[in-house]
């Protein structure tokens, strides 16, 4: 894991001072070293030293800050290919890098044991085979990668750059352009910090972005149109129903899940779990405990919240090591500005979910955890949201798959970017077993009738995620835990009601909300399926944005991120 930035000048200006600003504002993404690649050289430093940046003078610079997870202390980026024609920055994890390395070792010189170095040599191989077609080389490379990534590749002879994002969108990259510069970074604040761009875009999952020289020495193509890349790991628009009975579904899911967790915990002796007591994080923790010598679960919430009491009970029954970060009103009030700055958003739904996760990760980092697992994605692929059964009742089983696939496709901006920023703010790497491409491909081929019940005699038929829960039983998790009803994070942790109290304490109530503000609120993008359409099938107030709370958060955000835009 790391932070990636890059900037090039259209007018031949020195951009090294800007690179320093971009990297240092997200230093926690890579506290273990920094590297710069100019047109002429690659230099490294163990610290964010101003003198290091001052030595550079270039108009096209890639910058990288490293969180050392794979490969130990040796593995500073950017990487240069053996033939010195290509430079690479990589943010993410490649799970099949050992297998790929074996196929490359006879033709390439390796200087580290990192997964990232494998990627540069693989691109180099395809670049040679395609006679210098960089985009085609990138397409062929990502087709072979099993992992999550953002790659930035620069062709040294031309200065052309290609960015590419994995097909699920687990890691993110943003970019901006004006008449002087083109720049990109792992977080929006890297671009905000140089105050150059009126609009910032995100690269979409499974896409590449080509920045190409078009004329003289400093003229680049400024259209920045994304180019679709077939990674073979993207979310499909339709999935054939392959598993139509419970036994075949369980067998296929069991194999895919075991493989997914194994590849994410391989070589670790200690790992953390973002734990809420729900079946998703329970399964992840239960399996990880069988594969890793030390597994620690981290839960957060206000005193006596359901997530804390349930987590304690479940941890005792399953013999899981549980650590709790118990929050008070003062803690949360002080944390809100931090959260808004970290996730780069003031949306109520995003902030209130982020708070307990941030607190759990912060405790994990304090205790020396470097890698954590999460249960994110299970509700979308197994049909776990309560409104999914309402969709089935209204439109039938054919329609529900469309909703589920759309929700999975939107996870990148509704969940994944938020949680990447949260964990990386604490220099912790987050891994998502339920979002393994092979596992997604397997689970979305299960007949939705096996997961989402439309009535039934068995009391457990109405809980949703039936195949998921049945596998939990098969693995040895007690039925009362496997079929426990789990509240949404903001409610189970007690954070939603606490935010309501804080808003009121600070003078934001229903009477504060004017019709003009409601008009403004109606134009904001809705985040998460609960906000986007869940309330259409559920009458509960809890799924709607409460205007007075949103006003309170926006007031705080105006003092933290004056440049924030609703993008």
Automatic annotation (TrEMBL):
<keyword id="KW-0436">Ligase</keyword>
<feature type="active site" description="For GATase activity">
    <location>
        <position position="2"/>
    </location>
</feature>
<keyword id="KW-0028">Amino-acid biosynthesis</keyword>
<keyword id="KW-0315">Glutamine amidotransferase</keyword>
<feature type="binding site">
    <location>
        <position position="115"/>
    </location>
    <ligand>
        <name>L-glutamine</name>
    </ligand>
</feature>
<keyword id="KW-0061">Asparagine biosynthesis</keyword>
<dbReference type="InterPro" id="IPR001962">
    <property type="entry name" value="Asn_synthase"/>
</dbReference>
<dbReference type="InterPro" id="IPR029055">
    <property type="entry name" value="Ntn_hydrolases_N"/>
</dbReference>
<keyword id="KW-0547">Nucleotide-binding</keyword>
<dbReference type="InterPro" id="IPR017932">
    <property type="entry name" value="GATase_2_dom"/>
</dbReference>
<protein>
    <recommendedName>
        <fullName>Putative asparagine synthetase [glutamine-hydrolyzing]</fullName>
        <ecNumber>6.3.5.4</ecNumber>
    </recommendedName>
</protein>
<comment type="pathway">
    <text>Amino-acid biosynthesis.</text>
</comment>
<dbReference type="Pfam" id="PF13537">
    <property type="entry name" value="GATase_7"/>
</dbReference>
<dbReference type="InterPro" id="IPR033738">
    <property type="entry name" value="AsnB_N"/>
</dbReference>
<dbReference type="GO" id="GO:0005829">
    <property type="term" value="C:cytosol"/>
</dbReference>
<feature type="domain" description="Glutamine amidotransferase type-2">
    <location>
        <begin position="2"/>
        <end position="214"/>
    </location>
</feature>
<keyword id="KW-0067">ATP-binding</keyword>
<dbReference type="Pfam" id="PF00733">
    <property type="entry name" value="Asn_synthase"/>
</dbReference>
<dbReference type="InterPro" id="IPR014729">
    <property type="entry name" value="Rossmann-like_a/b/a_fold"/>
</dbReference>
<dbReference type="InterPro" id="IPR006426">
    <property type="entry name" value="Asn_synth_AEB"/>
</dbReference>
<dbReference type="GO" id="GO:0004066">
    <property type="term" value="F:asparagine synthase (glutamine-hydrolyzing) activity"/>
</dbReference>
<dbReference type="InterPro" id="IPR050795">
    <property type="entry name" value="Asn_Synthetase"/>
</dbReference>
<dbReference type="GO" id="GO:0006529">
    <property type="term" value="P:asparagine biosynthetic process"/>
</dbReference>
<dbReference type="GO" id="GO:0005524">
    <property type="term" value="F:ATP binding"/>
</dbReference>
